[in-house]
Amino acid sequence: MADPKGFMTTPRQDWPRRPVEERVRDWDEVYVPGALLPIISKQADRCMDCGIPFCHEACPLGNLIPEWNDLVSREDWRAAADRLHATNNFPEYTGRLCPAPCESGCVLAINQPAVTIKNVEVAIADRAWELGFTPPRPPDRLSGRTVAVIGSGPTGLAAAQQLTRAGHTVAVYEKDDRLGGLMRYGIPEFKMEKHHLERRIEQMRAEGTKFRMSTAVGRDIGAAELRSRYDAVVVATGATAWRELDVPGRELTGIHQAMEYLPLANRVREGDLAVSPLSAAGKHVVIVGGGDTGADCLGTAVREGAAAVTQLDIYAQPGGERDEDVDPWPTYPKIYRLSAAHEEAGELRTAPAANADARLFAASTLRFTGDADGHVRSLHLVEVDAQRRPVPDTGRTLPAELVLLALGFSGPDKEDGLIDQLGLELEPRGTLTRDARFATNVPGVFAAGDAARGQSLIVWAIAEGRAVAAAVDRHLTGSSRLPAPIGPYDRPMVV
């Protein structure tokens, strides 16, 4: 604890964002470059080095947060990077994309603004790359065992890196033409520039991990054939089966899933397309779904030049403070949060019919109507109460030329044939069945990440990847020294 009074003398200060008018004209990350380092040491000083640090419990990776806060306050970047990477393979991802349940569990957050744990984390990660503290770590010797990892999202990459470093020969199979899963084509560039992904993949290549892109297991290569080639297989395909909206008019042209829209916008940034075929430019856009994916659609539509953008959230607008009766500390509370995309939409007034941040809360879609050519033109909605029952006389109609459905995911996609070809069993909710060792019903096949857990946060995905790697290592060698931060049945803290 570098400054025993830091939490009393230093107010919370977050990484400042660039002005809205500037950042919506490009796709760069929204934060002011270089503005974090001048403030981060004093922010790390606010950590109280609690005797029982609940931030550990709130983080499924078990990040050693008080330790690296202390090291950052002393500007010992090498030691801080070592402590951070001891529990997290990809802190530059979580530092940008995780909603930081660790901050909700910060003891300081009981009655003050929490420590800026997420900002400290990303500062360490970026500084480690700048100073050369993240060299490849190839194994000293090979085990002679082989592992196939299906999926290159955060779970698959974490599992592959851990198993490679343990000495196994690992090949990652990815159905898309580039690696990264939803981090590549689902996360907009303004939230995480893709060079962060590229340099970590190059690190993994230098360590010995092999990558097979444009290869859908079950379609381009038989799943049973793949299983016969390797000593173990890890299924980390994610939860990509999107949820539908079963209302009249859904068949109209111009209504798309968020994960049809976002990948095309990302492909424009990759140089594959000059303009997205689903571009929001000049259109009235309505996004159905109030989560992070919906906010990603919002920020993307604003940058594409939409005429108007409105986001519908079926839940009532939450308050600005934690409700101790509903979400007591240290759980992750449902409170009103203003993402960068909502800040942009509010300042630019993209949705005159909505609240200041472009969101309509407690809103449920009733139906869509279109023109004579079968293209969507309007979305009809109604306000709902806490039980999602329609409130009489609250019907409204919004102009809608592009509708994006951001309703979440139910489990892994079954279309490629992987699940049927291997004979994998499914839970009633559509996720892969596994036991306490992450093993499926098929010998030598393991399941991890959203494909088995259901849709979750990136920090849980990386924890799953590290944990399944330990389970596979134990299966192959009889024991393992790899860390296993979570079990397959662990869940976030709730009341």
UniProtKB/TrEMBL annotation:
Q: Write the record's keywords in alphabetical order, separated by commas.
A: Amino-acid biosynthesis, Glutamate biosynthesis, Oxidoreductase
Q: Does the keyword Isomerase apply?
A: no
- Start and end residues of each 4Fe-4S ferredoxin-type domain: 38-69
Q: Which Gene3D superfamilies match?
A: Alpha-helical ferredoxin, FAD/NAD(P)-binding domain
What PROSITE patterns does its record include?
A: 4FE4S_FER_2
Kindly tell me the pathway this chain contributes to.
Amino-acid biosynthesis
What name is this protein filed under? Glutamate synthase subunit beta
Species of the source: Streptomyces plumbiresistens
